[in-house]
Amino acid sequence: xxxxxxxxxxxxxxxxxxxxxxxxxxxxxxxxxxxxxxxxxxxxxxxxxxxxxxxxxxxxxxxxxxxxxxxxxxxxxxxxxxxxxxxxxxxxxxxxxxxxxxxxxxxxxxxxxxxxxxxxxxxxxxxxxxxxxxxxxxxxxxxxxxxxxxxxxxxxxxxxxxxxxxxxxxxxxxxxxxxxxxxxxxxxxxxxxxxxxxxxxx
Length: 202
Fold this sequence. Notes:
Blueprint: E1 3-6, H1 11-20, E2 27-29, H2 31-34, H3 47-62, E3 66-75, H4 96-106, E4 116-126, E5 133-143, E6 159-161, E7 166-167, H5 173-179, H6 181-201
Parallel strand pairs: 1-2, 1-3
Antiparallel strand pairs: 3-4, 4-5, 5-6, 6-7
């Protein structure tokens, strides 16, 4: 079975991708498992550019098909912040709790009905020597006034998904996979990966 490199060092994201891509005809591996260490500066102006840059850098270093994503939370009341800076919003070395605390402080005077937000995810699939493929997923919601739930990672505890009446961190992995931005992008990625697997076999 061919290998597929998940170009992330984020263990929560890696776990989620393993679930979302369950059943694809690839052996999913991480940079740590391969011993591949690539320093990629995700400083581009769009999710697409950052995801592509990361996927292509890891594909070049490893020589195998690579999947990378860039995702972010966009809050209307903050003019789209934190957006592509979501992971670095509270500083380069901040953890998930620090980022959530910083976001809630920025929204302290914003009433619940004006906390509209969306998660966006771009997945890039890079095949050495071929054009990188882009998959997209969005998920609308609201930012809560305090964290709720123990599942997920990142901003999940303060992202409220109205259709299920829960934050992302209160959803099971199965529920999140069906409605989340990453789940929606991963559905498209699954189709691409099956096509690539057929080409590899041929």
